[in-house]
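Problem: given the chain below (493 residues), write out its structure.
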Amino acid sequence: MRDNSIKIIKDITEIVNSTINLSNLLDVIIDTATKIMNAKASSLLLIDEKSGKLFFHIATGEKKDEVKFYELDKGEGIAGWVAEHGTPVLVTNVKEDPRWSSKISNAIDFSTNSIACAPLKVGETVLGVIEIIDHIDGTPLTQDDLDILNAFSEVAALSILRARIFSSVSQENERLREALVEKFKIVGESAIMKKIISDCSKVAHSTATALITGGSGTGKELFARFIHNSSPRKLAPYITVNCGALPESLLESELFGYEKGAFTGAYAQKIGLFEAADKGTLFLDEIGETSLAMQVKLLRVLQDGIITRVGGTRPIKVDVRVIAATNRNIEDLVEEKLFREDLYYRLNVVRIRLPNLSERKEDIPILAKYFLEKFQKSSGAGRRVEGFAPEAMEILVNYDWPGNIRQLENALERAVIMGTGSEIRPSDLPHELSERGSSSVTVGLSLKDAQDNFKRDFLRRTLDSVEGSKTKAATILDIQRTYLSRLVKELGV
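Solution.
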């Protein structure tokens, strides 16, 4: 029997190593142990981490359903003693052992003569105990039975530990997933936003490259992530890179990776973001800032799905969905020969244009309430901010928000931190919000400075209204495009 038992334990161990379903595993372990040792009954008790009590997780035998209603203190009965000391015990006659407690046996009318009990132990930590009661034929349990039970307890302890680790990781992943959903939540009920969300949903279920345009702070990265999370690639990597934040040489090595020795400091091979995003999505933010040389390399990836690491010669196939974004007028860049026309057409398969916040003012109250609740939770302030004074909401709705949603978010974070009342009042908001509405001219400036301020503000608003197109803005302003470009440069718009 012993050799056969060892083989069965090895088989169960293989099952444990290939699955993390705790209930199924422990059922198999207890049932198998009971059958091997011809036991009348068996049970597995786990220690509750908060109370320290032992409760019946699994039980077999004719009283298996009744016994689950009972629990033991650590140290109570033979099972409690084993849990407290972490030492296996064989008792051939329970009536002669002072550790024996007949509380449960008497309560459920179940006679017990002998018990073998082993701790479920990982290192020095006892998770619970596993015990068997009597042989079916009435003969007492033996040392062989305890040895076999000990082996089963090691497998059971391992399965419990792995299942708990998996459960903990799963819960943490779920918490992070919920936090990400909240962090990248799209807020807005205006007709234009509903149309954009609908368009993004359609794009998500295709393989088309998408180009997202819009001013700074309109939420381009937010919608890129929405497309990824709504697509069949949602379980694969989503990686973002700001093309305007890196010099060309560094951007190339980041995107395509490099081989060992490709340049000074390349001490080991490194895969690039295209390889890291394989089967997933790569978001190329500020694509309009890339050089013409970099654009050629990007075009090749989009056309052929092939990259070559810096310093390498081997072509590497990648399956990546590319979403690009820019706050610049890309048509003007093409016209000025600063952006390749072929790359533009390759990127512009589906165009998603995000409106400025001033174009969706009906969403401002919804966004304001969302940010208020968000910062109320995170600020740790002792006071409860219930809402907005009507005058404060009027300021928020009437302001033009040149920084768009990002500026609104920052303004409300400041209001929650610096405010003192139960509602957001005009005095809690940044001064420029109320000042801009009454007058954008500061007294005390020279006439030229005041004129420059007006021109700068007027040009910025005009360019915002046409998504940064200098050609369209020049037509509206009835001036030459070259003159507009010079003004933009001189005034630092």
